[in-house]
Amino acid sequence: MKDPERIKRVASRLVKAYDEGYSVIAVVSAMGDTTDELIAKAREITSRPPRREMDMLLSTGEQISIALLAMAIDALGYPVVSLTGKQVGIRTDSVHTKARIQHVDTTRLMKELGAGRIVIVAGFQGVDDYDEITTLGRGGSDTTAVAVAAAVGAEVCEIHTDVDGVYTADPRVVKDARKLADISYGEMLEMASLGAVVLQPRSVEYAANHGVRIHVRNSSHDKPGTLVQEERCMEKDMVVIGVAHDTNVAKVAMLNVPDRPGVAYKIFSRLAEEGINVDMIVQTSKERQVTDMVFSVNSDDAPLARTITEELSRELDAGDVLVDDTLAKVSIVGAGMVSNPGVAARMFEALAEENINIEVISTSEIKVSCLIAAEHVERAVQALHAKFGLGG
Amino acid sequence: MKDPERIKRVASRLVKAYDEGYSVIAVVSAMGDTTDELIAKAREITSRPPRREMDMLLSTGEQISIALLAMAIDALGYPVVSLTGKQVGIRTDSVHTKARIQHVDTTRLMKELGAGRIVIVAGFQGVDDYDEITTLGRGGSDTTAVAVAAAVGAEVCEIHTDVDGVYTADPRVVKDARKLADISYGEMLEMASLGAVVLQPRSVEYAANHGVRIHVRNSSHDKPGTLVQEERCMEKDMVVIGVAHDTNVAKVAMLNVPDRPGVAYKIFSRLAEEGINVDMIVQTSKERQVTDMVFSVNSDDAPLARTITEELSRELDAGDVLVDDTLAKVSIVGAGMVSNPGVAARMFEALAEENINIEVISTSEIKVSCLIAAEHVERAVQALHAKFGLGG
After folding, report:
1. What pLDDT shows up at residue A237?
2. Residues B165 and B276 in one domain
C-alpha cells in the first residue's frame, strides 16, 4: 500500500469480496517506504540498534497501515476492525527481527468474523511468550497471511503483489519468460529461496505444511496469477520449470580449520544462534587435519558472519577468514528433475558454453544451484532459460 | 523529542540520573510533528475516522519514540528496555481518543527496574479490558507519567517541557509575568483547566489523588522549575497566584428548552457519552416553561456539540441552537480566595475599567472565570495581572 489512493483501492477490493459473500481477512504490510524510513531513523541514532528495539520500531509501520485501511473501509460504510499481531494472537519465538510464527490463536479472529466484520491484520509482526513484540523479517507479511489462512481454514490465501505471478525466469532479464499457471510448493520454495522474490520462502514452507493454497496475483488488475498448491498439472511434462537467480549472495571461507569432530557443529550452531541463514556449504580437505570451510550467506548478513567466523577462527586456532560478496547464485528448478538424470550436466554445459566459471555447486531433489561471479549472472540466466526451452 | 540530537540529549540526561543512583523510568511522547502527520494521513482517507482506529494509528507515534530513545541509551552502553502502554500494563476505560487510566500494573516495571534497566514507557496510550489500544487525548503523556510515578511510589515526577515552569500569566502576553516556585494541586488544576497549558488537567488531578509531587521544568537546561505539591509556602500570602486564559472556547446556546425535570440530565449525559467536556453552564429562565441552556466547550468539540444539541433540540421540541466560537475565557486562580471575599468583584472591576463585556461567569472556591470576546483577551489578562499585583 503506497498512498491514500492505493489504500482506498484496496478497501474497494475487500468490500467487493465481502459483498460476494466471503468472510474477509486482509493481512497488510507497511506503506511504501515506511519501513526504510524507520530504519533510517534508527541509523541516525546508532549503527547497532538492539534487535528488540528494532522490532518495537518497525512494527509501527504495519500498525499505521491497518488503521488507515480500516478507516477507508469504514468510510465506505462497511463494518471493519484492525488488529495488531498481539491482538490477533500471532505467537512467535523470541528471535527478534527474524521470528518464526509458532501458533495463531483464532479466538479474536473468529469473534470478529462472526460479528460480520472485515478484519484487517498487521502483517510481519507477532508477540513471543513474554509479550515482547517480534517481527518476521523481510516479506514476513506473506507468512502472516498464510499462517492466518491456515488457522481459520481459508479457501485460498491471495497474495497481492506488483507482479503478475511466478515466471520461468525474471522477465527483466529474460525477454521471453513465461508466467506459470501453477507451481508446486516444493518448486515455489526453491524458486523463492533462490532469489525469485515473489514470496518469502518461510511462507511457502508454512503453506506446504498446512496445505494452504496460495494465489499470487497482481494487485493492480483482476487477471489470475499463479497458483501454488500440492499437485500441479505438469505443463508439457516440463523437467525444469524455471531459472532463478540471486545477486544478494556472499561467500565466506574459513581457511585451515582443524578437521576434528564437532567443529562444523560449533561453527554453524554459532551462526544459527545469531540468526544467520547459511545456504551452500562446502568442506574441502586440503591436507591431513585441516580443512577449508566454505559457505554462502545473504550479503546483508556478511558483516556479522565475518565477525562471528573471525572469533571462531581464533577459538579454533584456524586460519584466515575470506569474504567475497561479488558473487551470484543461479539455479534451475523442477520437480521432474528427480526422475530425469543428466539435468545437472546440461546446466554445467550451458554455463561452460558461456565461459562462466562455477565456484560452488549445490543440489537437491528438485534444483541445482551454482555460485558464479555476479557480473555473469544475466548471461547465465538467459543461457539456461534457452537451454531448457522455457521460452513462451 | 524533536529530532535525533534531541533524543540523544534526553538519553544523556537519563543516563546521568541513573549514574547518580536513581531507578529511572522515562515516559515519552511522540516526536515533533509525528502526531499531526498521522492525523493528516487519516484525513486523507476520511473526514470521520472511527475513534478506535485513530487510537490504533496515533499510538504508533509514541512507540517510535520509545524504540529510538532506547536505542540511544543502549548506544551509550546502559541497560534499557522500552515498553508500550500494553506492556507496562496501563489499563484504561474504553473511551477511545480520550481514555482515562484506571490502573497501572507494576509487575513488569518492577521486574525491569530490579534487573537494573532504565525503563522507557510510551506515554499517551493504554489498553482497555478487551486488549483494545486506547489513547488519553492531547497531553496524555503527562498523565501517563504521573500514573506510573504513583504506581511505583516515585520520589518525584519530573515533567520536562519547553517552558521554565508555571507563570503568574502567559509570559507572551504579560511582560512581567513571574515563574512560581511552587503551586498547590488545586491551583495547578485550575490553571491547567483554564488554558495555562503546562500540564494536562487530568495529570494534576491524578497527582493530587495519589500525592505525587510534580516538578515542571525546562528540558533544555538544569534550572529548577515549579513544584506542584500538597502544601505550598504561601508566597507573600498571595490571594491570587495567577491569571490564566484560553482562546480555545466555544459557547453553545440551546434556546427555548422545555423547563422540566430531567432535561439538563438528558442534554449533558448525551454530551458526556460522546466524550465532550462541558465547562461553564448557565441556565436562564426566560418565561414560564422554557429556558435557555448555555454552556461552553473546547472549540475542537464545537462541531460535534452542535450536531448533538441539534438532535436533542428536535427530540425535546426546543428552539434554535446557536454556536459562537469567537470567545475566550479569562480566569484568576488562588487558594487564598476562599477566605478573601471581594476578589471576584475586583476582577469584574478590572474588566469594566477596560470596557470589556462579560458573557458568562463561573466560580469555584479557588478561581473565577469570565467568558469574553476573544479579541479582548490579551488586554484582559494584562489588566488582571496588574490589578492583583502579580508582576515580578
Report:
1. 64
2. no
Q: What is the pLDDT of residues A345-354, one digit of tens each?
A: 899 999 999 9
What residue of B is the nearest CA neighbor of A68?
Answer: B42
Give the separation between CA A248 and CA B101, rounded to whole angstroms: 49
- A-chain residues within 8 Å CB-CB of B32? none
**A4·B41 Cβ contact <8 A:** yes
Query: Of A232, A261, A292, which residue constitutes the final position of a domain?
Result: A232
The whole-number pLDDT of residue A200 equals: 83
CATH of the domain at B292: 3.30.2130.10
Q: What pLDDT is stored for residue B101 in this prediction?
A: 94
**Residues of chain A falling short of pLDDT 70:** 1-2, 195-197, 231-237, 285-288
Three-class HEC string of chain A: CCCHHHHHHHHHHHHHHHHCCCCCEEEECCCCCHHHHHHHHHHHHCCCCCHHHHHHHHHHHHHHHHHHHHHHHHHCCCCEEEECHHHHCEEECCCCCCCCEEEECCHHHHHHHHCCCEEEEECCEEECCCCCEEECCCCHHHHHHHHHHHHHCCCCEEEEECCCCCECCCCCCCCCCCECCEEEHHHHHHHHHCCCCCCCHHHHHHHHHHCCCEEEEECCCCCCCEEEECCCCCHHHCCCCEEEEEEEEEEEEEEEEECCCCHHHHHHHHHHHCCCCEEEEEEEEEECCEEEEEEEEEHHHHHHHHHHHHHHHHHHCCCCEEEEEEEEEEEEECHHHHHCCCHHHHHHHHHHHCCCCCCEEEEECCEEEEEEEHHHHHHHHHHHHHHCCCCC
Cβ neighbors of A278 (< 8 A, separation 6 or more) are: A268, A271, A272, A295, A296, A297
Whether residue A56 and residue B72 make contact (CB cut-off 8 A), yes or no, is no
Q: Within 13 Å and on the Cβ side, how many CA atoms surround B315?
A: 10
Are A122 and A11 members of one domain? yes
Number of A/B CB contacts below 8 angstroms equals 106
Mean pLDDT, contiguous 10-residue spans, chain B (392 residues)? 85 95 95 91 94 97 97 98 97 95 95 97 96 91 96 93 90 92 89 76 90 92 91 64 92 89 86 86 75 89 94 93 93 83 88 91 86 94 94 80
Report the pLDDT value the prediction gives residue A213, as an integer from 0 to 100. 95
The pLDDT value given to residue A1? 62
* Chain B residues with CB-CB distance to A60 below 8 A: 60, 63-64, 67
Tell me if B71 and A86 make a contact (CB, 8 A cut-off). Answer: no
Total domains in the fold of chain A = 2
pLDDT at position B1? 62
pLDDT computed for residue A65 by the predictor: 96
Are B15 and B101 within one domain?
Answer: yes
Flag whether residue B188 sits within 8 Å of chain A, measured between CB atoms: no
Interfacial B residues in 15-44 facing A (CB < 8 Å): 38, 41-42, 44
Query: Residue B227's pLDDT is what?
Result: 93
Nearest CA in chain A to B35: A64
Nearest CB to A64; choose among B60, B68, B131: B60
Distance from the Cα of A62 to chain B's closest Cα (Å) equals: 10
Pull the grid cell for residue B121: 514507557
The alpha carbon of A168 is separated from its chain's Cα centroid by a whole number of angstroms, namely 17
Q: Do the Cβ atoms of A63 and B60 come within 8 Å? A: yes
Nearest to B358 by CA among B173, B350, B257: B350
For residues B300 and B179, membership in a common domain is answered with no
Q: B98 lies in which domain range?
A: 4-232
SS3 label, residue B34 = helix
